[in-house]
Write a structure and sequence with these properties.
Its EC number is 1.21.98.4. This is PqqA peptide cyclase. Interacts with PqqD. The interaction is necessary for activity of PqqE. GO terms for molecular function: 4 iron, 4 sulfur cluster binding; cyclase activity; iron ion binding; oxidoreductase activity; S-adenosyl-L-methionine binding. The protein has a nine-stranded mixed beta sheet, with helices on one face. The protein has a domain at about 1-215: TIM Barrel. It has helices at about 30-45, 60-70, 90-95, 110-115, 120-135, 155-160, 180, 185, 190-205, 265-275, 275-280, 295-300, 305-310, 325-340; strands spanning about 1-5, 50, 75-80, 100-105, 140-145, 165-170, 210-215, 240, 245. The longest helix is centred in the middle third of the chain and has 18 residues, at about 190-205. The chain is globular, with a radius of gyration of 20 Å. A hairpin with a 5-residue loop joins strand 8 (about 240) and strand 9 (about 245). The chain is an alpha/beta fold. The two termini are about 25 Å apart.
Length: about 350
């Protein structure tokens, strides 16, 4: 379960995947509301809770939620910018039972990182990383890759090693929310993407077994789609700050999809019975070429939200697939990125 505790955040990253309509989520769940959701999640069979946002450290009840999750036997992972981390709070989170931390870095170069975040944040993030490791918490460094930082992919891996991280996740931008709005600014060219693959291989060779280096490839390049949530409504659910529950982070944008709420409904009923979770379950909803594709139960037709964003039809084959009749919508974007001498202007959240 992905628990989006708040969409409040001190940063203004141009690739933020939070919704554009942030005002809709100002009425956040109370502590009791989240505790009830955690109890119901365990009853549903949830094993892991990823505490994210926005910036989850802005929730004053974070240790209370972690403590309840621990008492329920749930694995907890905190996804954070680290910016609001006060002295001693990392130790408090560890004592409450936090299992793991994912800390975001925007770039290996401080000035460029701060330009992306819209705030002088990089040095504070490095300090937060040390607080987390000093508290004995396993640490993953997250870096979102785009045309502005791909050249320093190897430096990001080196920095993660220097910070004592156990793992670094180098993930190409997923184009939802603000990232979709800024895609002309963020999208890399084909040559950059191919070079990134070489740089990842070099970083793995350079660091050996000292750190796990995970590379989430750019699915707009190569003609192969990512599996949509490993199956829509099959393995995970997302609870938004106001209690909305959906199968994926970006699904609220899909037309005709009624959004259930954990404020008024039980999680189990939402999971098993709601139209939102059943809309794209299985394969019966698929159109051609997905319907007859031998990979239909492997890639699940790709991303429903990406299909909608490019084509206006959430049931269409993901245009990132080379077999999609709309594949040119993705490849045209790559051609534009290849030919652009400078990135487009940015729009901050």
């Amino acid at each position: 379960m992905i628990a989006e505790l708040t969409y409040r955040c001190p940063l203004q990253c141009t690739y933020c995947a939070n919704p554009l309509e942030l005002d809709r989520y100002r009425d956040e769940l109370t502590t009791d509301g989240w505790l009830r959701i955690l109890d119901q999640a365990r009853g549903l069979g949830v094993l892991q809770v990823h505490l994210t946002g926005g910036e989850p450290l802005l929730r004053r009840d974070l240790t209370v939620l972690i403590d309840r999750a621990r008492s329920l036997g749930l694995y907890t992972n905190l996804v954070t910018s680290g910016i609001p981390l006060a002295a001693g709070r990392a130790a408090e989170l560890a004592e409450a039972g936090l299992d793991h931390v994912q800390l975001s870095l925007q770039d290996a170069d401080a000035d460029r990182a701060d330009a992306v975040a819209g705030l002088a944040a990089h040095d504070r993030k490095l300090t937060a990383a040390r607080h987390f490791t000093d508290a004995g918490l396993p640490l993953t460094i997250n870096a979102v890759l785009h045309r502005g930082n791909l050249a320093r992919l190897g430096d990001l891996a080196d920095q993660a090693v220097a910070l004592g991280a156990d793992r670094v996740e180098l993930a190409h931008t997923q184009y939802y929310g603000w990232a979709w709005r800024n895609r002309a600014h963020l999208a890399p060219g084909e040559e950059q993407v191919r070079q990134a693959e070489l740089d990842v291989a070099a970083a793995r060779e350079r660091h050996g077994g000292r750190i796990e280096i995970v590379h989430v490839a750019a699915d707009h390049h190569g003609g192969v789609v990512k599996p949509c949530m490993n199956g829509w409504g099959e393995r995970q659910l997302v609870v938004a700050p106001n209690g909305d529950v959906l199968p994926c982070l970006a699904a609220a944008q899909l037309p005709g999809l009624p959004v259930p709420s954990a404020v008024t409904e039980d999680l189990a009923a939402i999971w098993y019975d709601s139209p939102a979770f059943n809309r794209f379950r299985g394969t019966a909803w698929m159109q051609e070429p997905c319907r007859s594709c031998p990979l239909r139960e492997v890639d699940h037709g790709g991303c429903r939200c990406q299909a909608f964003q490019f084509t206006g039809d959430p049931a269409a084959t993901d245009p990132a697939c080379r077999l999609s009749p709309h594949h040119h919508l993705v490849t045209d974007q790559v051609v534009v990125a290849d030919s652009a001498s400078a990135p487009a202007p940015r729009r901050f959240r």
